[in-house]
């Protein structure tokens, strides 16, 4: 296999640029926020909360505009029978950012949280926070693995270098500058990467459009030329499936640590909202060249190109339509620049996800659940170790797991079905407690996993109304695979069931204990009768045993960002108006 020296050189130059910018950002902001009393660990997680509109808008946009976003949009537009009508990611994620900005950014930022899991642990306790960490972590890791896998395939198409080597080098660079500078390095490199994506793809589009093998995309949008029209259509019988997937993108795109890390790093709650709106606009703008490249692929007579007479869809290479168009319809120097754009998209998402996963682990699992007395230096080292571990794990999955996309689809569904309704409850529904949270978690998990996952060959044990048995033939091996297609909007129904069961079981438990129907000794989660117990994060999780006296709390370091109590400033979320706990009643008597 011959290595294209020019392409390899272009990628080396681009990677060095990213590395230099990441190290420069770390050096420039090494003391930012610390002089005001913020711990170094918090500075790594949320950048000292001084990210401005320019850098913040770019980094939030770049987080969503990743390799999966630009490659997936182009693939969806290109696929016969799919087309632009089913390219839901641009509008879905844009609306997700708008909804997040309107309803979620302000309460999260104004209450001074450090990670997305903070309000869960504050209200539901450390054990429930640990359970909610699982789908959040899986989503970030599988997302990183999926886009690293896409990068390896893309590089192998254009540059003819080993997939494993390209994935490992890309991951190492992203891990290194994330280790050095935390959110600052991630944010500043995102600015460079977004410029590269925008310029690289837009440079490629005119050359691809002018290729003699490409027909007028205005004609192929509505007429069958080489394949079905690339505008696509939504069959009425597929309407519920389309709506289910769109709600998954729009609402399921909110409860991700990569999003809230940017929200919580904003210099104010109003800035956090504006960043979300800017990123929504940026997502739509950045999707345009991908849509055009997908349309170009659908309008090409591949027999007139160096690709060969068999179109990509018949070789099961439709997922690589973007790099294929860059290579075979553009001059070499343009395709290499476009390849840099794809690499930029992947790295801008991979570094964000790895940092997000390590932030949640270091703070919500290690510090708040196990080592409340951990020093700031210790937390920083835990973050550095987990950045490397999670990065290595995502890289290994990208190289070794053939079903990495299926794992990501399932984990992103679980984020939507489990974490989104929990976030609604903890921020907006007064009176929910740990019993309701556990019930919502279990109901959502069972209803979603019960629907099966064809990408993982996971058969369903719940057959929703309208299900159909389908079969898919692998074009290269001619193997026929049978699977169950759930045409019912079961993902959204699972999310709603999780939300309703959370509220219902919370109020039922509250009534049973407060009315005396159940004895206080059965409140084993300390969620109703003993509301301010060791499970409540801003009260006494600073200690590891039960017979604690107040004087023992004196040794705890009370610095902004360093103490758990100082972090959770939303005190009234833990109290219900008109209800007095037994402990407080005893104190007033």
UniProtKB/TrEMBL annotation:
The keyword Secreted does not apply. Keywords: Glycoprotein, Ion transport, Membrane, Neurotransmitter biosynthesis, Sodium, Sodium transport, Symport, Transmembrane, Transmembrane helix, Transport. It comes from Sinocyclocheilus rhinocerous. Homooligomerizes at cell surface. Interacts with SEC14L1; may regulate SLC5A7. InterPro entries: Choline_transporter, Na/Glc_symporter_sf, Na/solute_symporter. GO terms for biological process: acetylcholine biosynthetic process; neuromuscular synaptic transmission; synaptic transmission, cholinergic. The keyword ATP-binding does not apply. CDD domains: SLC5sbd_CHT. It is a multi-pass membrane protein. High-affinity Na(+)-coupled choline transmembrane symporter. Functions as an electrogenic, voltage-dependent transporter with variable charge/choline stoichiometry. Choline uptake and choline-induced current is also Cl(-)-dependent where Cl(-) is likely a regulatory ion rather than cotransported ion. Plays a critical role in acetylcholine (ACh) synthesis by taking up the substrate choline from the synaptic cleft into the presynaptic nerve terminals after neurotransmitter release. It is found in: Presynaptic cell membrane. It catalyses: choline(out) + n Na(+)(out) = choline(in) + n Na(+)(in). GO terms for molecular function: choline:sodium symporter activity. The lineage of its organism: Eukaryota, Metazoa, Chordata, Craniata, Vertebrata. Its main location: membrane. One of its GO terms (cellular component) is presynaptic membrane. Belongs to the sodium:solute symporter (SSF) (TC 2.A.21) family. This is High affinity choline transporter 1. The chain crosses the membrane at residues 6-27, 51-70, 90-108, 129-151, 163-184, 191-209, 239-259, 271-296, 333-358, 379-400, 406-429.
């Amino acid at each position: 296999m011959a290595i294209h020296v020019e392409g390899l050189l272009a990628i080396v130059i681009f990677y060095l640029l990213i590395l230099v910018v990441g190290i420069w950002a770390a050096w420039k902001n090494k003391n930012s926020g610390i002089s005001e009393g913020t711990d170094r660990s918090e500075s790594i997680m949320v950048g000292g909360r001084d990210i401005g509109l320019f850098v913040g808008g770019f980094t939030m946009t770049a987080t969503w505009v990743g390799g999966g976003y630009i490659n997936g949009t182009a693939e969806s537009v290109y696929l016969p029978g799919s087309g632009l009508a089913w390219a839901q990611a641009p509008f879905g994620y844009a609306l997700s950012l708008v909804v997040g900005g309107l309803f979620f950014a302000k309460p999260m930022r104004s209450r001074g949280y450090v990670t997305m899991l903070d309000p869960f642990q504050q209200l539901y306790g450390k054990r429930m926070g640990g359970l909610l960490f699982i789908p959040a972590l899986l989503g970030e890791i599988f997302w990183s693995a999926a886009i690293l896998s896409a990068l390896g395939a893309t590089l192998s198409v254009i540059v003819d270098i080993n997939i494993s080597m390209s994935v490992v080098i890309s991951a190492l660079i992203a891990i290194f500058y994330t280790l050095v500078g935390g959110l600052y390095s991630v944010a500043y490199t995102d600015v460079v990467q977004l410029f590269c994506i925008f310029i690289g793809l837009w440079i490629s589009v005119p050359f691809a459009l002018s290729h003699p093998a490409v027909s007028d995309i205005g004609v192929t949008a509505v007429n069958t030329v080489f394949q079905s029209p690339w505008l696509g259509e939504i069959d009425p019988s597929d309407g519920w499936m389309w709506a289910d997937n769109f709600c998954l993108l729009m609402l399921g795109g909110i409860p991700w640590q990569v999003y809230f890390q940017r929200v919580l790093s904003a210099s104010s709650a109003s800035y956090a909202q504006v960043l979300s709106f800017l990123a929504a606009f940026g997502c739509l703008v950045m999707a345009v060249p991908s849509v055009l490249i997908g349309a170009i692929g659908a309008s090409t007579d591949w027999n007139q190109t160096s690709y060969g007479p068999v179109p990509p869809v018949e070789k099961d290479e439709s997922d690589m339509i973007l790099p294929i168009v860059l290579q075979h319809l553009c001059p070499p120097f343009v395709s290499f620049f476009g390849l840099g754009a794809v690499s930029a998209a992947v790295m801008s998402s991979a570094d964000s996800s790895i940092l997000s996963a390590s932030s949640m682990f270091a703070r919500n699992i290690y510090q708040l659940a196990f080592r409340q007395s951990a020093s700031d230096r210790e937390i920083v080292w835990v973050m550095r170790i987990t950045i490397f571990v999670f990065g290595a794990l995502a890289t290994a999955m990208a190289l070794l797991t053939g079903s990495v996309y299926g794992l990501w689809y399932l984990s992103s569904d679980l984020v939507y079905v489990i974490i989104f309704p929990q976030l609604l409850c903890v921020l907006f529904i007064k009176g929910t407690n740990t019993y309701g949270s556990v019930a919502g978690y279990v109901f959502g998990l069972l209803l979603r996993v019960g629907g099966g996952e064809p990408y993982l060959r996971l058969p369903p044990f719940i057959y929703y109304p309208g299900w159909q048995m389908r079969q898919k033939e692998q074009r290269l091996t001619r193997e026929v695979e049978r699977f169950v297609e759930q045409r019912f909007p079961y993902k959204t129904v699972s999310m709603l069931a999780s939300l309703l069961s959370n509220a219902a079981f919370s109020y039922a438990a509250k009534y049973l204990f407060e009315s005396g129907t159940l004895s206080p000794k059965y409140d084993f989660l300390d969620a109703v009768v003993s509301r301010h117990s060791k499970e409540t994060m801003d009260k006494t999780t600073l200690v590891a045993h039960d017979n604690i006296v107040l004087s023992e709390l004196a040794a705890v370091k009370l610095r902004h960002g360093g103490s758990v109590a100082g972090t959770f400033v939303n005190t009234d979320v833990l109290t219900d108006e008109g209800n007095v706990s037994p402990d407080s009643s005893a104190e007033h008597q």
